[in-house]
Structure formats: structure tokens, C-alpha cells
Amino acid sequence: MSNFEELYREIILDHYRSPRNRGELPSPPALRVEGFNPLCGDEIVAYLQIEDGVLQDIKLTGQGCSISQASSSMMTSAVKGKSLEQVRDAIATFKQLMSVHATTLQANAQPAEADLRTLGELAALQGVVKFPVRIKCATLAWNTLSQGLDEYSAA
Ligand code: ZN
């Protein structure tokens, strides 16, 4: 295992063992949105508190594998307090990381360093998404958040 893989593993385990922003928000006013990954059985319930175009607060409950839970914990840290535009950017960047990784696996290439810097500790997830089925685990929380934003804009 390389030093990077070791570090990534530590970050993921830390989020899995001590998930950030765990819990519920009163709904309403918070928006409640559910996500499910039938391939693995991962479940997520996200509570989004959106005011003045800013994701003021986010809380999550749910259960599932370490990847899904660590990814959702990292996500809350990454998007809490950000403008909806920044949140959408983060979702897009993360999904790109997952798809880039999937396509570069064959070529045995690494994601661009600049991308990893932008993502901070989220980059840890690219190190463990070694099978397509795990990508669903890692992206579940992000898809759920994205769905929540869509419901908010449509309301
Ligand atoms: Zn999973």
C-alpha cells in the first residue's frame, strides 16, 4: 500500500467512525430527501436547510457500507454553509472524479493533481472506488443532495 492509499484509508475510516453532521432537522422548514442504493443496500436521509440561496445546514441519517457513510459524512463537511451554486459545483466535481477514475482505471492513470487539490479530503474516495459497484456507494449521498436541490428549485 502506498502512503497515499494509507492516508486515504485513514480519512475514510475516520469519517466512517465519527460521521459529521449526523442527525435530523425539523422538516419543514428543512427539506427532507431520501436516497437508496439497491446494489449495496445503502440508505441515506438528508435534511437540507436552505435560506437566501445558501445551504445553511445539512444533516444526515442512514446506514450502509463504510464507503457510502464516509462519503456522505465528507459531503456534509464540503457543502455546509456554501451557496447553492458552490454546492452544485462540488457535486459536479465529485461526480467527475468518480467517472474520470472509472475510465482511467483501464489506462492505469491517476486523476489530475489539480482536481485532487480542489477536492481536498474527498480525493480520498478515488483511492477506494476500485469497482463500478462501489461508485454507486460513493455517489449516493451526492445524488441525494442533487435531488434535494432540484426539488427545492422546482418548489
Ligand atoms: Zn455501499
Strands ordered across the widest β-sheet: 1-2-3
Residue-averaged pLDDT, rounded? 86
Quickly give the structural class: alpha+beta
How many angstroms does the end-to-end distance come to? 48 Å
CATH class: Alpha Beta
Count the domains.
Answer: 1
In a few lines, what is going on in this structure?
The chain has 155 residues and is α+β, with helices and mostly antiparallel strands. It is built from five helices and three strands; from the N terminus they run αβββαααα. It has helices spanning 3-17, 66-79, 84-107, 113-119, 132-154, and strands at 31-37, 42-51, 54-63.
Tags for this model:
54% helix; Sufe protein. Chain: A; binds zinc ion; alpha+beta; 155 residues
Plain-language structure description:
Helix content is 54%, strand content 17%. It has a single domain, classed as Alpha-Beta Complex (Sufe protein. Chain: A), CATH 3.90.1010.10. By secondary structure, the protein is α+β, with helices and mostly antiparallel strands. The protein has helices at residues 3-17, 66-79, 84-107, 113-119, 132-154, and strands at 31-37, 42-51, 54-63. Helix 2 runs parallel beside helix 5 (132-154). It has a 3-stranded antiparallel β-sheet with strand order 1-2-3. The chain contains 5 helices and 3 strands, in the order H-E-E-E-H-H-H-H. The structure holds zinc ion. Residues 37, 40, 42, 64-65, 67-68, 137 line the site of zinc ion.
